[in-house]
Amino acid sequence: MFESSIKSAYTRRFKEKGAQAEGVFWSSRVSQTARFEQVLANMKAEFGSNSFYLADIGCGYGALLHYIQSKPAWRQIDYSGVDINPEMVSYCKREHTSHKHRFSLGRQPKHPVDFAVFVGTFNLCHTDDYELWEDYILRQLAFSWACVRYGLILNITSLETAKINNHIFYVNPVAFSKKLASQFGAVSAAPTRFVPQDTTFIICKEKHERHITKLRKAQR
What we know:
By secondary structure, the chain is of the alpha/beta class. The chain has one domain (3-219): 3-Layer(aba) Sandwich (Rossmann fold). It is 42% helix and 22% strand. A hairpin with a 2-residue loop joins strand 6 (163-165) and strand 7 (168-170). The longest helix has 19 residues, at 29-47.
């Protein structure tokens, strides 16, 4: 229902501002980069190296791929980008011609990956119903949960009092962690470095669950 409104908003904004942080409703390139570094560092810590396969859910104009390619420390990462907005996916395929196979239309990884990341994906919402948007987020995470070997990492705007303000969704970190834990399992959360009012959540599969996921994918 509200997805069509969200897609229209992003399409209009992107046409107005272009391929830059502000073009996808980021407050600045600095906060965008800080979020990138946070999720990449978290994945490296969980995986034990910087050679992992990630799916960037809500990839927008492909900024995370560009960032990974620009940093020698992250170039071993195998990247794929997914977005529900066909305009964004088309742009990525045109802009990243040699990597166009890495981008796809949808809401979950097209192939098994180590991690699915959601970098500010759910901050902008077009509803005033907090519980409705929270349920939407949990459903979207569940789609990717079945496709990952290690886990999900997301950062999202946060305040002590959970609310929606000016179309921005703010979670209470403690309450939202409990919601995530009740549906998925072990969760850790910490403030996103250098980004005020933002929290990064790490949802990891247990080791035996990772093994089962690998077996299922191998049997297909």
